[in-house]
Design brief:
about 280 residues
Length: about 280
């Protein structure tokens, strides 16, 4: 299934995308896409209903963040060796973990707002993993059973804030609109192998990033298991699994976003995002 939340910001309703690409309303079945809905039983209950019996949403509604009630956004840094190389870092021996504020979340077609006085805002397309079952000290073999599904994510980064303002990555990662998620949550059963997904990002129609999740240093199952050794993962938690090469910071000379840029990205089978960059 492709689960969505549609409508104006702050007033989204739950839905799903049918085989023809239309949005179907789920509000008669569930209150929203969150919590228990993301469990295996919750997703099975939705799947048990005939899609044809769900009301069609007319027009082309705005799609919001496909999951609500997100408790935390956990990011994995330097998880593609060629990306580590382009930014002058050594590939890590263990996953590099940092957090991104949930206030940075925004929809898959919303404007991206440059922070005040920003001159080094960068892009990073990533595979997002959404947790469906509580995970604490889970094995790598059982890790994927705790995943509800997958989505497209961009880890926007203000590099000066990240690297020159006290050495804390979080402050460069958590500006408003710096965590677009969507357009939909593709449930785990519809993704044959999360380590065989192509991902890409364009700025003003020019390809900047292209990679494949098979080139991750640490795969999804390892990441979920690893994180669960340090913190309990709850339904709705989002894990951003790292970015392939092609970020602006790694170019010679470096390139950064400016107001007026248009940005598009996508992941095989998980949909695309489209954004317009605006000043603060």
């Amino acid at each position: 299934m492709k689960l969505v939340r549609y409508g104006q910001k702050g007033d989204e309703k739950p839905g799903l995308i049918d085989d023809d690409g239309a949005v179907r309303d789920l509000s008669g079945l569930v209150a929203d896409i969150s919590g228990d809905i993301l469990s295996s039983d919750g997703l099975k209950a939705i799947a048990a209903h005939s899609v044809k019996d769900l009301p069609v949403v007319e027009g082309k509604p705005r799609l919001g963040i496909p999951v609500t009630g997100i408790g935390k956004i956990i990011c994995i840094g330097l998880n593609y060796s060629d990306h580590a190389k382009e930014v002058g870092a050594q590939p890590p021996s263990e996953p590099v973990i940092f957090m991104k504020a949930t206030s940075a979340l925004t929809g898959p077609s919303d404007d991206i707002k440059l922070p005040k006085n920003s001159s080094h805002t960068d892009w990073e397309v990533e595979l997002a993993v959404v947790i469906g079952e509580k995970a604490s000290y889970v094995s790598e073999e059982n890790a994927l059973a705790h995943v509800a599904g997958y989505s497209v994510f961009i880890d926007f980064s203000e590099r000066d804030y990240q690297n020159k303002r006290g050495g804390q990555w979080t402050k460069g990662k958590s500006c408003d609109t710096f965590a677009p998620l969507g357009p939909w949550l593709v449930t785990r059963d519809a993704v044959v192998d999360p380590q065989r997904l192509g991902l890409w990002l364009d700025v003003d129609g020019r390809r900047k990033q292209y990679g494949n999740t098979e080139l991750m240093i640490f795969g999804v199952a390892h990441i979920v298991s690893y994180l669960s050794q340090f913190m309990t993962l709850h339904p709705g938690d989002v894990i951003a699994t790292g970015t392939p090469p092609g970020v602006g910071h790694g170019m010679d000379p470096p390139e950064y976003l400016r107001a007026g840029n248009r940005l598009e990205c996508g992941i095989d089978g998980l949909g695309t995002q489209n954004h317009f960059v605006v000043a603060a």
